[in-house]
């Protein structure tokens, strides 16, 4: 399987470190994306090692009198000093040693603790058999110069190859050429001291599928003219001298013995070549990092350059092996890796050869294979009018056939009989779409689509914008540290009598509107806390939980705290779906077991919300239809066969839970303090006054957690403590009444039926208008995209409409219509 990894190093540098490192992993044929975050420390030693390596590289080739087109003085780093008298003293052993040191230091840096987690995540999700495009995004010049392929990760993943990319990029709209071969523009520039004839001979013999135009030591005007060619080019190749300034951002190509050009001087011509389909640029020349930087600015899809001055033989061997592998069917990245690794066989004569080639990639575009380049042009050859009079007779005949085919299917040339057939087709679409819709809605009624629909619900819930915290609430949590407080020494559960008594004593003077205790206290008290007993019995603002028993599920209940009257009791029971995720809000129920220790009719969260609203003159009522009403807000009861819920128990009074998300998480529903903060008087009184205070445990040892539709960074459903869930539910009720925050709404059955049928008609209409496979897939995909965004927009407005059934009927109806209209009977 082909995978894409993008390592974004942000705006950091090796001098200052990379504080925000992000890695994205995705399959080339799957929209699912994983993302991990970390950081990398500063590593100025890598700059020093690279400079040392670069110096020895230049010196060892000078000592051997091998021409690598050494940097002109104008382009040499001022920090690197070359002592001519010392050139003959450079040994292979010394060069090998600096290579090993650079490799060791790079691997140690990438093994830092804050980055190691990223690598472990990648190794977990990647297979050794995956072909991996590994793109590194950075603006740091020295980081681009480092030989990333020596990272041990690439030793383990033999089908992975690294490429460089800028942080900011965009794709260019391209048109395809009418040429039936892969078109290569080969510029053989200033060849002083190098052999460009070998490149020419190889390109001439490359493949019968390639058409190569050669420019030998051309003038600027000749290059410009060819780049503007109307047929466009697939590959741009340059052999000769090139160089870069030490800023890494300015590259020059020497096109003949007297002329050199910066990429900027060919900007307009190159942009036009890219628009006309240029896919790949190969610079088989010296020191091409500056060239790559400037071509990045033009958004060329991909290119190959040499990161340092390169010997003739190395450049030619790489070109030969890369293009042979590429033309033989290997992927672009795999062909580069194999050609680069094969250069190791030359390193006795040419040290460091396998470190030179480097890919630059535009992440917005996939890398084509040689076959795709050829097939793409052939498939589209008849769509563009011929640009030259030298087209073959066979090609002209093919174009005439295409023109006749186009005339044949023009609507304005349709006969009356064809018009009648069009009307018949639409009638057929209506009938078929209704049949398909009825069938799919029947399947839905049986609950077969429920799991998929609930996953879509979760996705939409996570996709909504974040909201502010609910300032009407305050959550007091009992953490693991709070369990160790002196006041907790006699506790049986998570909160002792003494700790609860002192907590309530601290809160009472701060005048909260309501206090809800989300901790079971059904065991006898261990201390004689008369004050606590009196407060529990008489404090009208205090509410406690109990749990309803259910003999049918062999579940025992929990009693409320002794002394708390029934009107201040609330059950803690919640409704979980088959996957244990809480998506529904249980407001009220009648216990089925008459012997249950908990007889509360309303949930704790409902009791707290009612009490808070009653103090503002808003009382719960029931409409004639038996639905709960608070103020002007009616809480529509959820029944079976509503929305995505088909085969579920909707006993009691249930509504959908409209989670409030702050900073991407339901955990931050409201301000939170710990038990210690309250007992030690570290809480601002304004945080308590007129608030609804919820008390509950978040200690992992008690595992009072439930799953939500939200996801963790590791791809698991996010769990939240029970007290946070109660806060979400209190907030839903109060916010709906006081702020007009909408409750989640589901269309009635007839509304959902019309919605789904409408999309079925869309699928049938698309199929009846255009029966060609390619156009049908594009139009159908576009329709599904529109459906998705409409569903998302409506959900963000708190309306849940069917996505999965609508997408299915669109696909099924269009398929059936295509089959029907292409049958002999039609």
Automatic annotation (TrEMBL):
Keywords, ordered alphabetically: Membrane, Transmembrane, Transmembrane helix
Domain of life, source organism: Bacteria
Keyword RNA-binding carried by entry: no
Transmembrane segments: 743-764, 776-795, 801-821
Alphabetical list of Pfam families matching this protein: CHASE2, CHAT
Occurrences of domain CHASE2 (ranges): 449-766
UniProt keyword Transmembrane helix, yes or no: yes
Ranges for region Disordered: 376-397, 552-571
Biased amino acid composition, Basic and acidic residues: 376-386
Protein's name according to its UniProt entry: Sensor protein Chase2
